[in-house]
Amino acid sequence: AQSVTQLGSHVSVSEGALVLLRCNYSSSVPPYLFWYVQYPNQGLQLLLKYTTGATLVKGINGFEAEFKKSETSFHLTKPSAHMSDAAEYFCAVSAYNQGGKLIFGQGTELSVKP
Amino acid sequence: EPEVTQTPSHQVTQMGQEVILRCVPISNHLYFYWYRQILGQKVEFLVSFYNNEISEKSEIFDDQFSVERPDGSNFTLKIRSTKLEDSAMYFCASLRRQGTDTQYFGPGTRLTVL
After folding, report:
1. For chain B, which terminus, N or C, has the lower number of CB atoms within 10 Å?
2. Per-residue pLDDT for A29 more than 90?
3. Of A65 and B1, the one with more pLDDT
């Protein structure tokens, strides 16, 4: 079975500050890990994903995440927040033998203050 | 860029009525999914569909739900007799092949059951 825990349902940062959104996963097989972003009244857009290979993955809009197997974590970071980053962020896990099904975390709402 | 589309964007129905939510997946994709998101909660997997049959379904996907790919392009979710608790955003997603490929989501249909 797989599960995802996102620490912090709401994170608030100032514009230009570091963004750190935390995600921990549980998986009995090697995981595929994803971060999706949801802007108000829109669908889910893939930010980045880890499947195999390099553990530091870069995504769109300056976001990156590092897969740390020993910590079962896949935290999302961005060095400098922009107002347009305000959105809901979802971490998700899948696996090669799970038929592509995604298991999502509860989501973290990111607010960016001017 | 190809995208997943969903209609309608918002559906209001009376409790006990049947609703059909429609999705057009990306044309060369082979795996199709429905997820739902109750307001303020996480995105939950409902069902996956491949080769014209359900490959996996969650415990949420009971006998009131059904899926169909009637014409090789549309992918539909039917709820036979809606309940108040079916009110949610329903997302369709598609995937070209399992493994490392990206699952693309539609913009969602907001279902309101009165």
Report:
1. N
2. no
3. A65
CB atoms within 10 A of CB A44: 26
Is the per-residue pLDDT at A97 higher than 80? Answer: no
Contact B33 A51 (CB under 8 A): no
pLDDT in tens, B46-70: 999 999 999 999 999 999 999 999 8
| Distance in Å, alpha carbon of B111 to nearest chain A alpha carbon | 13
Tell which of B44, B98, B101, B102 to mutate to test the A interface (max A CBs under 10 Å).
B98
**Are the beta carbons of A44 and B95 separated by less than 8 Å?**
no
For chain B, what is the total number of helices (H) and then of strands (E)?
A: 0, 11
Closest partner residue to B107 (CB to CB) among A43, A92, A106 is A43
B95 at A interface, C-beta within 8 A: yes
Q: How far is CA B14 from CA B22, B76, B82, B83, B89, in A?
A: 19, 20, 8, 8, 16
Query: How many CA atoms within 13 Å lie on the side-chain side of B49?
Result: 25
CA B48 – CA B2 distance, rounded (Å): 20
